[in-house]
From TrEMBL:
Name listed for the protein in its UniProt record: SEC31 homolog B, COPII coat complex component
Organism: Strix occidentalis caurina (northern spotted owl)
Taxonomy of the source species: Eukaryota, Metazoa, Chordata, Craniata, Vertebrata
Domain Sec16 Sec23-binding: 570-696
SMART domains named among the record's database cross-references: WD40
Superkingdom: Eukaryota
GO BP terms: COPII-coated vesicle cargo loading; endoplasmic reticulum organization; protein transport
Amino acid sequence: MKLKEIERTAVQAWSPANHHPIYLATGTSAQQLDASFSTNATLEIFEVDFRDPSLDMKQKGTLPASNRFHKLIWGNFGNGSPESSGVIIGGGDNGVLTMYSVHHILVSKSEPVIGQTEKHSGPVRALDFNPFQSNLLASGANDSEIFIWDLNNFSVPMTPGAKSQPHEDISVVSWNRQVQHILSSAHPSGKAVVWDLRKNEPIIKVSDHSNRMHCSGMAWHPEVATQLVLSSEDDRLPVIQIWDLRFATSPLSQLEGHTRGVLSVSWCQADPELLLSSAKDNRILCWNPSMGEVVYELPIRSQWCFDVQWCPRNPSVFSAATFDGWINVYSVMGGNLEAQQKTQADKISSSFNNLDPFGTGQILPPLQVPEQVAQTTLIPPLKKPPKWIRRPVGVSFAFGGKLISFGLTKAPGQQMQQTYPHQVFISQVTTETEFLLRSRELQMALQSGNLLDYCQGKIQTAKLPFDENLWNFLKVNLEQESRTKLLKLLGYSKEDLQKKITSCLSNGIPDKQPLPEADETNAAQPDQLLINSSDDVAAVSSSSAFFDNLIPQNMSTLEIPVTEDTDGLISQALLLGNFEAAVELCMRAERFADAIILAIAGGENLLKETQKRYFAKHKTKLSLLLSSVVQQNWQDIVCTCDLQSWKEALAILLTYSKHEDYTHLCDMLGARLESEGDAALSNDACLCYISSGNVERLVECWVKNHETSSPLALHSLQMNQGL
């Protein structure tokens, strides 16, 4: 939509982005004449006030000029003082380069021309300020002349290097937007040269191989340092080429939408996805260079537009200078020009209070505006929101203490921006500081892999014996030779047992310790010890459907003695896998049958040694243990052991069971402790599930026996699962 207009045959320059209010400078264009054939030249400054609905712009300053202008540019040089508004540089005929003080033009008091030089040998058509150092100006003219000027010393320029060959005009010069010592220049022949001012030489040259590329415009990518665009004014190749200097053998991509030669291009510094172009087909297009599509188009005009420029301060606005002597200011956000014209007509009528201005006192009739047969003036906006109005971030609370946030991420600087990827973050908001601290400690331990120290710290800070025991089991599961260490946690050590056996063999072994008295209903039978009645077994099995499938009915209960008599020492030796000591104890006690059975399990050599002794079957309370060990029937131990001896049963599994059976057997033992035992034994079932690695059963057992409403208790369970 058109916002402002001014009738001038002129070149143009916007005020810098940090300047307010927004000004537009115009200079009488060289090599163009209006209907009056006047050869005078004028430099003018207009205020672009978008609050005023009219199309007119207010003139704020004017200055007669000695030369007409090929190029005009407005820079920040001298903006350090409060009164300064920067400088305007004009490139004219005969190599004239003139520097004007904007402040002096606006106040019309002192001499506005603060510098002038004629170092160039021909018309100065190319100008650009360094975006990093406002005192550095690049200019280009005929015969491949490029000068770098320091505005603090405007009389002596420097060159970026030797003139490119063959000599030709410089149509455009442009500073890189990311690297301050890189400058590029373009020639009408289609060749572009990139200069490195540190080396004072060209570092690369790019050109189209078709030889039909007549370069009319050039612009660096606002964010990607190695990419630039070149436009061709040749009607045979009306394209805009995107080049990446890392692959300078051919264009990276090509924008094809104009039907005749492209006259100018301008890249929006606020959004790299907006590139303006004007051409001889009377069209002004706005491109998304990364997608190669047109996102905005102005209606076709009757004259060519030879210059388009984005407004540095208001990125939705651009200006266009045409050969019919008009400079128009447009918005890419769309609008309706008819509504604007009606508003202007109503404003004029209201100034006369609807009365005849000639003093007759008659009310003016309504203004009849003839209908336009021409095309509609409704101009759609950009196809998608530009970068400067996109919502950069957002945040919202969700259920469960979740905080959802999003933001726009910047694409890598070395690649063309395809899209702006959205990142959504989900955060947990909590007021439990101790809970948060423990979560961080666990997270750090998991990331560093230092779980042993973490478990040791939990052991040292445990307040309850069960918690200390739990963390000891977890710690041992993470260490080497975990089974041996788990045996020690259960209270069984090979070294301690050896000391007991040595002491007992030297001092004499008590035959047996007295057994607890039993009533007739629970008295042990010759081949069964501590056998539960069938009614008891049925009552226990009916409490758990899971346990019904694991334990057969009428199974005898196995008690594992760990006393200091012969049976106790033999049991401890077997728990630790010390067959030699167990056989020796049996032989000393003249228990030949036990000795032979153990020798069979202990190996061929041990069996041969004990076969010399008489082996007689002798049924005692140890018979079931011996039978299980010799026959390697571990399921019977799990299913029949006294629950108070669960540690011993777990020790047997740790010692003898195969790896593929160990998990299942530990789960069986844990299931018995859960279904048959009291609350303390049900807690101990957690240790069996930890030993087997069954996380699901551990969680079920934990939840059943612990308070789950506390966030700290839940966190402890979560840490156990993580470990």
